[in-house]
Amino acid sequence: ELEGRENVRLIHGDALRNKNSFRPDLMDQVREAQSRLGSESQFKLVANLPYNVATPIITNLLHETPSPDVMVATIQKELADRIVAQPGCKDYSALSVWIQSLCKAQIVRVLPPTVFWPRPKVHSAIIRLDAVPEWREQFVDLKHFHQTVRSLFFHRRKFLRSVVISAMKGKLDKAAVDQVLQKLGHGETCRAEQLSVQQIQELAEALRIAEQAVV
Length: 215
Hints:
By secondary structure, the chain is an alpha+beta fold. The protein has helices at 24-37, 54-61, 77-84, 94-100, 133-137, 142-152, 160-167, 174-184, 197-214; strands spanning 16-18, 21-22, 44-48, 70-76, 103-111, 124-131. It has a four-stranded mixed beta sheet. A two-stranded antiparallel sheet has the order 1-2. It starts with 15 loop residues before the first strand and ends with a helix.
């Protein structure tokens, strides 16, 4: 039905090159379209994402240039809960911090299995992510931030000091880690899952600066 329209380009294939990166040729198509349409154009993802690739697609798109202005997707409700989760709850994770650092996230609607055929065994949700350019611009090194966040939540129940020392092994010694944590006011019993998105951003940036000072 859409084939042959001048303003539609159909591409048959996988969106991901691998679990850690988007297909370069697809992003080339996006950049070409934006160049042709002008600065007022918007990059939007509107999709019913397969549950097994929803996380890498959303996560990797946020690394891309350009990244989507808006993403509206149907995903597994469990994943949607993790994306919008707040500090202190069981769903709060590296994914929550990563996405909320770059986008305003909201669950638009929860969908029961009965609205699909064949019926899945789990509930789904429509999630909307609106990129905030000012939030993205605050990061000096976005890749470093993402790697740090993932490291902090790798052992989410361990005390923050132990996790940071492990993550910074070979980069910062224990004294340097203690200095960073003390400066930010994080005590010995603090855990990453208790920190707000802003606090984790501040910690990641402080660690980045401390790393550079050692080099």
